[in-house]
TrEMBL record:
Pfam families per UniProt: ATP-synt_Eps (PF04627)
InterPro entries found in the cross-reference section: ATP_synth_F1_esu_mt (IPR006721), ATP_synth_F1_esu_sf_mt (IPR036742)
Gene3D superfamilies per record: ATP synthase, F1 complex, epsilon subunit superfamily, mitochondrial
Family: Belongs to the eukaryotic ATPase epsilon family.
CDD domains according to UniProt: F1-ATPase_epsilon (cd12153)
This protein's name: F-type H+-transporting ATPase subunit epsilon
Species this chain originates from: Lithohypha guttulata
Region (Disordered): 47-74
Length: 74
């Protein structure tokens, strides 16, 4: 028998993110706001070329712009 997250076709990391969001949303107002603030994160990345680091970019913004470009192309 496969794990439910595997059967759903998601990664374990994504499964954990979904479970954490569900738990945070189930809390009462005060603790929920504190937990949501702790759950926020800002991932950044940079491409390296010829041994030099490129510009740091926000992963969320980069994904949004890539999805917008892909939608325009289709």
């Amino acid at each position: 028998m496969a794990f439910a997250w595997k059967a759903a076709g998601i990664t374990y990391n994504r499964y954990l993110a979904i479970a954490a969001r569900v738990v945070r949303r189930s809390l009462k107002e005060g603790p929920r706001l504190q937990a949501e603030r702790r759950g926020e994160m800002d991932l950044r990345f940079a491409k390296w070329q010829n041994g030099k680091q490129g510009e740091n970019k926000s992963l969320g913004e980069a994904n949004a712009s890539a999805m917008a470009e892909q939608a325009k192309a289709e």
